[in-house]
Specification:
mainly alpha, transmembrane, ASTER
């Protein structure tokens, strides 16, 4: 039968210590929330615009006090940029682009 005595020595146990975080670790959600609105504006893709809005809103609501202190731009600015990207992508619905060549009267000059 096995012995019930604990053979581990308490004086040899080491407590766990978290390794320090390096300052060069990049926050991927912050990077995505700042680059996706630009991609949505360049491609005029509505799906990328909505994705950028969700990413930026998520990074704004989930930022820690350390991230607020160390950030170069505030997180609400990325939310504003993603809203602007949505406006740019939906802009042709409200103000359609002009046809190339202008109107028919301007295209055929009278002689």
């Amino acid at each position: 039968m096995a012995s019930k005595k604990d053979m581990r020595r308490a004086d040899l146990a080491l407590p766990y210590v978290d390794p320090p975080k390096s300052s060069s670790d990049a926050d991927i959600s912050s990077t995505m929330s700042s680059t996706l609105p630009m991609a949505a504006m360049f491609t005029r893709n509505r799906m990328i615009g909505w994705l950028s809005f969700v990413f930026s809103l998520q990074s704004w609501l989930g930022e820690s006090p350390d991230q607020k202190k160390n950030a170069s731009t505030p997180a609400y600015m990325s939310v504003f940029m993603s809203l602007m990207a949505l406006i740019v992508t939906y802009f042709p619905l409200f103000l359609p682009p002009q046809a190339p060549g202008g109107t028919a009267a301007a295209a055929s000059p009278s002689s």
